[in-house]
Amino acid sequence: MTRHFLTRLFAVLVVSMTGLLALPVNAQDEAADALIKRLSVEVFDSIKADPTLRNGDVSRIIALVDSKLMPNVNFKRMTALAVGPTWRQATTDQQRRLQDEFKTLLVRTYSGAVAQVNDLSFMVKPLRASTEDTEVVVRTEVKGRGDPIQLDYRLERTPGEGAGWKIFNLNVMGVWLVETYRSQFAQEINAKGVDGLIEKLAERNKSNTSRS
């Protein structure tokens, strides 16, 4: 499996979370593996049917992220885990800016690979979890032109309004997205603090914008 293919695969799975269209009325009762299975089917159908998504239209993808992804992902927790212990020391404004820049970074970095969805297919593996579990890992197998790739989603059960399973991390071939960014972010935080990390993310996003 080539590095290029893995990059495309990681890109698709990041953007694929935008594929959650209308949640069912009893979303709080939907099992974690059922959620991922529905996500996989819907994202493939929606991307194949939308030329602007396949062409990597960033504004279109960001709009989908805001309207469809955020209600179904604990992005605050994802960002906090990526930033590490320093997150608790950041101000409310800094946390908000970190979330905004991190989301933009993910979308802009991987948006160009959405067109590759036609080369991929998903299979959700049986979930090994009890009804009392509040965090689970749903394992899927992704098939492309080479050997199958294991792709894992880590989810948490959230109570109260909007209850249901929320995604907060992704794993491709043993590499978790959050941990990958945590090591990068830690270097910047150690060198220039939280504001330095925010500035670095903003610079990367501007650079990605100029190349798009």
Q: Can you walk me through this structure?
A:
This protein is α+β, with helices and mostly antiparallel strands and 212 residues long. The protein has a single domain, classed as phospholipid-binding protein (Arc Repressor Mutant, subunit A), CATH 1.10.10.640. It is 52% helix and 16% strand. The chain has helices at 3-16, 32-49, 51-54, 58-69, 75-83, 92-110, 177-211; strands at 121-124, 135-143, 149-158, 164-172, 175-176. Helix 1 (3-16) packs across helix 6 (92-110), helix 5 packs across helix 6 and helix 6 (92-110) packs across helix 7 (177-211). The model is unreliable at 17-25 (pLDDT under 50).
Features:
212 residues; alpha+beta; Arc Repressor Mutant, subunit A; five-stranded antiparallel β-sheet; globular
